[in-house]
UniProtKB/TrEMBL annotation:
It is found in: Cytoplasm, Cytosol. This is Bifunctional UDP-N-acetylglucosamine 2-epimerase/N-acetylmannosamine kinase. InterPro entries: ATPase_NBD (IPR043129), ROK (IPR000600), UDP-GlcNAc_Epase (IPR020004), UDP_GlcNAc_Epimerase_2_dom (IPR003331). GO terms for molecular function: ATP binding; hydrolase activity, hydrolyzing O-glycosyl compounds; metal ion binding; N-acylmannosamine kinase activity; UDP-N-acetylglucosamine 2-epimerase activity. The lineage of its organism: Eukaryota, Metazoa, Chordata, Craniata, Vertebrata. Keywords: Allosteric enzyme, ATP-binding, Cytoplasm, Hydrolase, Kinase, Metal-binding, Multifunctional enzyme, Nucleotide-binding, Phosphoprotein, Transferase, Zinc. One of its GO terms (cellular component) is cytosol. The gene is Gne. The keyword Plastid does not apply. The keyword tRNA-binding does not apply. Residues 53-390 form the UDP-N-acetylglucosamine 2-epimerase domain.
């Protein structure tokens, strides 16, 4: 521990030397309202506590300086921060035009302030329109921006503003793993993203043991008990003001009917807030004996109020974020927080036509106590942020770079106006056939080409290129715009490099093969390559039973046994690209030998090759054919003959199939106990013969908690080609890498 502390100090010293000897980082923190100050204050205290590294300038603007919203700049002064500049930037009116005018006014006033301060970096929080003005000004004046809470998802115009600030910001501090992934998906530089947690949690997680009864009595009255009052905080939804006002009216009606002491905070300064205040006054909330209506509560006291409330109701981000730290029940109303990660303490009421739905939610939630949630932080955000600030090298180029996914430089884009349909070229390398198809965005196979798969590497690659070139030319004639090429092949594949590492024995001379480069060079298109089992899972995710399912597993039952795993909507490849080799799950220590060299694999029991082997044994012993069956002398015995014999009453054939189904079922049980998916999809020619056997084994062998899993047969006619197309269509439309 001492070693790593010294190493960290040495690195900070080196950065300071790079930035100029004894140069302190001049940090400007701009705060616009009571909500963002609760997140910025812990960082400001941290910066102030290390004067040897930082100089702090505080700029206050927005609703902080408006009397109707509590003149909340005073709490900044009470925290003993020197306010360098106060900017009156809010144009009153509380409508859409006033918001635009407020942004314009801030843009007019900020340049003079920033010219005087000349900060090295500006810290901007969140997704408010004031913050957009701050980020725009700083970016245009070549000032580095650190954005707090980027990458999150919510409803209303805030979502667009947050992502716009992300694109302007040079550095990012996010609160959750999902937010970090969203930033990466938005092409932000991973090295400039810090997963720190929410700064307010540093205070939240140490706040609950303080004296709280005096605070509760001060705001709600002497006769109020803990867990016997409600905190209500609801803001207008700027993209649907009329509906949000109606929802607020229904909320107040429900709270009046519920008849519990309630602390109601006035809404923020967004368009529609004036109408919401009128609704409060129309219903007499400010004079109602059960209600206390206030413009502002200091954050330290607000923490205590929500921590010991019976319930919080409204649409504030505080309800879905901070309140989870205390396990207080929350009712989240409307669409303002749609997409936010929430703990189990949050009950969503997306829409309500009458007060009854909200009243029912109050009856369900009030007085409950949920486990504390740490989705948004662990209480150590500020030390991480300060360390991140110290690591910033001011000599690095100011111009930010975006990490776009890799594509060929010479992709032609000049015929977009001619082509209307986005499509993919899909290549399926099977043990017998080589197929290429044009697949549309909807999963329609527009054109398909099939040839026998050559036995040698050179012939195979030559044929792939020839078929792809032919298909790409034909795409123009059928009005398809080809976005890229997806290749599905057997064996272990490195999808990052587009290389087949090791092949199955069904495809000869197919190891350490770079498929991406020759195809991309020939077609001038981006190329994706993956294992056929993974492709089948991707096909189900985009076009089949897996559409919209967060966690599921696909099992291919064909010549071999393969599969793919989708976890949290994403495909799992594993550390060495060997995940989902489901056919090689061992279900018996002394079972038949598998092609992989092991014994007792699922594939050794349930694959087409395994069934063919058993069929040959029966045939050699004259035990295969029964009445109603016939075979030509030169006809090769196959798994189909075994299945036909079982259907016609051959007990030995039936026993072999039941054993194969049991082996597959045991493998599925192991998967259920390991991955706990909500859906298992059986794909391939043998799927329909195994589905009932698999369900029976699950009912007999699986833990009760996973027995409810759905097991279905794939309805996709060509999962290999559709999966190869999904590699292209998902990537090019989602921009996730």
């Amino acid at each position: 521990e001492v070693y790593f502390k010294n190493l960290s100090k040495q690195k900070q010293k080196e950065v300071m030397e790079k930035n100029g000897n004894n140069h302190k980082l001049r940090v400007c923190v701009a705060t616009c309202n009571r909500a963002d100050y609760s997140k910025l204050a812990p960082i400001m205290f941290g910066i102030k506590a290390e004067p040897q590294f930082f100089e702090l300038d505080v700029v206050v603007l927005g609703s902080h300086l408006i009397d109707d919203y509590g003149n909340t700049y005073r709490m900044i002064e009470q925290d003993d921060f020197d306010i360098h500049t106060r900017l009156h930037t809010i144009v009153r009116g509380e409508d859409e035009a006033a918001m635009v005018e407020s942004v314009g006014l801030a843009l007019v006033k900020l340049p003079d302030v920033l010219n005087r301060l000349k900060p090295d970096i500006m810290i901007v929080h969140g997704d408010r329109f004031d913050a957009l003005a701050l980020a725009t000004s700083a970016a245009l004046m070549n000032i580095r921006i650190l954005h707090i809470e980027g990458g999150e998802v919510s409803g209303t115009i805030d979502d667009s503003i947050r992502h716009a600030i992300t694109k302007l910001a040079h550095y990012h501090v996010c609160c959750t793993r999902s937010a970090e992934q969203h930033l990466i998906a938005m092409c932000e530089d991973h090295d400039r993203i810090l997963l720190a947690g929410c700064p307010s949690y540093d205070k939240l997680l140490s706040a609950k043991n303080k004296d709280y009864m005096s605070i509760i009595r001060m705001w709600l009255g002497e006769d109020v008990k803990t867990r016997d009052y409600i905190v209500a905080l609801q803001h207008p939804v700027t993209t649907d003001i009329k509906h949000s006002i109606k929802m607020f009216e229904l909320t107040l009606d429900a709270l009046i009917s519920f008849n519990k002491r309630t602390l109601v905070l006035f809404p923020n300064v967004d368009a529609g807030s004036k109408e919401m205040v009128r609704v409060m006054r129309k219903k007499g909330i400010e004079h109602h004996p059960n209600f206390r209506a206030v413009k502002h509560v200091p954050f330290d006291q607000f923490i205590q109020l929500v921590a010991h409330a019976g319930c919080m109701i409204g649409n504030s981000s505080c309800g879905v974020r901070e309140v989870g730290a205390f396990g207080t029940p929350v009712i989240n109303l409307g669409t303002r927080q749609t997409g936010r990660e929430t703990g189990e303490n949050v009950l969503h009421v997306r829409d309500a036509d009458t007060q009854d739905k909200i009243l029912h939610a109050l009856q369900l939630q009030f007085g409950k106590q949920y486990p504390c949630s740490k989705i948004y932080g662990d209480g150590n955000a500020v030390p991480r942020i300060l360390k991140f600030l110290k690591s910033i090298d001011l000599k690095e180029p100011l111009q930010k770079k975006f990490c776009f996914p890799p594509v060929k430089d010479n992709i032609s884009q000049d015929i977009d106006h001619i082509l209307e349909t986005q499509s993919a070229l899909a290549v399926d390398l099977g043990g017998t056939n080589l197929r290429v198809a044009i697949v549309s965005m909807k999963g329609e196979i527009v054109k398909k080409y099939t040839q026998l798969n050559p036995k040698t590497y050179e012939d195979r690659l030559e044929l792939i290129l020839k078929m792809c070139v032919e298909a790409a030319s034909e795409a123009v004639n059928v009005n398809c715009r080809i976005l890229g090429v997806g290749v599905s092949t057997g064996g272990r594949v490195n999808p990052r490099e587009g290389i087949v590492l090791h092949s199955t024995k069904l495809i000869q001379e197919w190891s350490s093969v770079d498929l991406r480069t020759p195809i991309s060079d020939a077609l001038h298109l981006p190329v994706w390559v993956d294992n056929d089992g993974n492709c089948a899972a991707l096909a189900e995710r985009k076009f089949g039973h897996g559409k919209g399912i967060e966690n599921f597993v696909t099992l291919i039952t064909g010549t071999g046994i393969g599969g793919g795993i989708i976890h949290q909507h994403e495909l799992i490849h594993g550390s060495s690209f060997c995940a989902a080799e489901l056919g090689h799950i061992i279900v018996s220590l002394d079972g038949p030998e598998c092609l992989c060299g092991s014994q007792g694999c699922i594939e050794a029991y349930a694959s087409g090759i395994a069934l063919q082997r058993e069929a040959k044994k029966l045939h050699d012993e004259d035990l295969l054919l029964v009445e109603g069956m016939s075979m030509k002398k030169e006809e090769v015995v196959s798994a189909a003959h075994l299945i036909q014999a079982a259907k016609l009453g051959n007990t030995k054939a039936d026993s072999i199939l039941r054993t194969a189904g049991t082996a597959l079922g045991l493998g599925v049980v192991n998967i259920l106990h390991t991955m706990n998916p909500s859906l298992v999809i059986l794909s391939g020619v043998l799927a329909s013969h195994y589905v009932n056997a698999v369900k029976d084994v699950i009912n007999r062998q699986a833990l009760s908690s996973v027995k409810t899993v759905d097991v279905v047969v794939s309805n996709l006619a060509d999962p290999a080609l559709l999966g190869a197309a999904s590699l292209v269509l998902d990537y090019t439309t989602r921009r996730i890498y």
